[in-house]
Write a structure and sequence with these properties.
Largest sheet: none
Number of strands: 0
Shape: globular
Order of helices and strands: HHHHHHHHHHHHHHHHHHHH
Structural class: mainly alpha
Strand content: under 5%
Radius of gyration: 22 Å
């Protein structure tokens, strides 16, 4: 608004009433803290669950092609994860910038942030295509035999998938535009439609139904790409209907650089996190092959808790970003603390459920006694720290909303990396459970570290308004 930012910051510092100037705030900030939190968190959780269905659907259909094709898709998962992390640079950065501009009352600014994010998506798409010749080398690094059927099928699948880097990244940017203005129902609807579409298109493209050429395992990739493209088209139009002007304009490299500064540390942290797990995987393999399978099962079940935590992280990012865009530092910090407390409370019953029901949950997936034991202990030990996971994600989201993501990279890398020496030390006395304890211990440390980092954050998006 027209109020000088220094005055607004001083008003916040002296304890501005939550109701003062409420009519000039964006709609989200006019709600109670609880209502604002759940307006973002609930649809974000539902969207996360829907997105996890893509991999499940592809696995179901590709499994019908044969074990070779399923193994090829599994071997491609790390490369696909890297592509997603590349795209997240744009979506995370746009989320922060869009939220701050919405808080500042500038829907034009939100639209500009989205458009610049789409330019970044184009860069990501072109970069992904340039990496296509390296696909066979990727599989060789994983130890896949150069003349094997898995290599041939995996190369075919990944070559199809890289064409989806642009629509995948662009759909994430558009979704971040919705997150920034706190209107997530359209994103939920689009994801539900696209998941259903993916279920239908997979067999059509893979086996060549309805006159479409049979593409085998590559058909699953092309079906997913088409769904991402449909998501882009629908989301673009729906975002315009939310009064966000999406006018094409040339790249503004200052805004693109700001998006990168915010999003890149989070994506790099995700990549380093994956590397740490690859090292832990080798350690678990040395303790027994079933332990690696147990970790995979534990991750699939634990994904529920992770998705719930991500909902709180998104809520913190949006509310903090909007408060800072409006010029209120105190309210931004209070919103982050409230979100962290709520996350800890909501994750508590989920933790109790995982501890109490670990064995019957794992029994639904496998009956292999060598895998059941370590998988059950994983759920119980890791589940005990679910509340800390919620706190970590809440403050991680708060730092994202503040545009201060370097601490997320630094602390995330350090505290994920220490899992390796701690696991090596503990596994001598406790076996595989020592690895699970190391993972849980670092989760607790990350919760405290993210809280400390946010409390000390200079809140860049307040100090340097966008």
């Amino acid at each position: 608004g027209s109020t000088p930012r220094l005055l607004r910051r001083r008003s916040s510092a002296v304890g501005l009433s939550h109701d003062q100037g409420r009519g000039s705030l964006p709609p989200l900030l006019q709600l109670s803290r609880s209502a604002a939190l759940w307006k973002i968190a609930l649809p974000t959780i539902a969207i996360g669950l829907l997105r996890s269905a893509y991999g499940i659907i592809d696995s179901i259909w590709v499994g019908r092609l044969g074990a070779t094709q399923l193994a090829a898709m599994g071997a491609s998962s790390f490369a696909f994860w890297v592509l997603l992390l590349l795209g997240e640079v744009a979506s995370i950065g746009v989320h922060s910038v869009a939220a701050a501009r919405e808080g500042n009352g500038s829907r034009d600014g939100v639209g500009e942030a989205v458009i610049q994010g789409l330019w970044f998506s184009l860069i990501c798409g072109l970069l992904s295509l340039c990496l296509t010749p390296l696909i066979p080398m990727y599989f060789q690094l994983l130890g896949v035999a150069s003349n094997s059927e898995v290599l041939a099928a995996g190369t075919e699948y990944l070559r199809g998938l890289v064409w989806g880097a642009l629509p995948f990244t662009a759909s994430g940017v558009l979704a971040s535009g919705f997150k920034g203005i706190a209107e997530l129902r359209p994103v939920l609807v689009v994801n539900a439609v696209c998941v259903a579409l993916n279920f239908v298109l997979d067999p059509v493209f893979m086996w060549g139904w309805l006159g479409v050429p049979a593409m085998g395992v590559a058909g699953a990739a092309h079906a997913t790409n088409l769904c991402a493209l449909v998501s882009c088209v629908i989301s673009f139009r729906m975002l315009q209907k939310e009064d966000v002007p999406l006018k094409w304009r040339p790249p503004d490299w200052n805004i693109v650089a700001q998006i990168m500064r915010i999003g890149l540390p989070i994506s790099l942290g995700g990549l380093l996190f994956t590397v740490v797990y690859m090292v832990l995987g080798r350690l678990l393999g040395s303790l027994g092959g079933a332990n690696l399978a147990a970790l995979g099962l534990g991750h699939r079940v634990e994904a529920l808790g992770y998705t719930v935590s991500e909902g709180f992280g998104a809520a913190a990012a949006t509310t903090v970003g909007q408060w800072l865009g409006a010029g209120y530092a105190k309210e931004a910090r209070e919103a982050a603390s409230y979100t962290a407390r709520a996350a800890a409370l909501v994750m508590l019953p989920l933790a109790v459920a995982f501890i109490a029901l670990a064995r019957p949950i794992i029994a639904l997936i496998t009956t292999d006694p060598a895998t059941v034991g370590p998988a059950v202990s994983y759920l119980r030990i890791v589940g005990a720290t679910f509340s800390f996971m919620g706190i970590e994600h809440a403050f991680d989201g708060a730092l994202t909303g503040a545009g201060d993501t370097t601490p997320c990279l630094v602390w995330g890398f350090v505290l994920n990396a220490i899992r390796i020496p701690i696991a090596l030390w503990l596994c001598r006395s406790y076996g595989v459970e020592g690895v699970w304890i190391a993972i849980s211990f670092s989760t607790v440390l990350k919760a405290f570290a993210m809280c400390w980092a946010f409390r000390r954050s200079p809140l860049p998006l307040l100090r340097r308004p966008v």
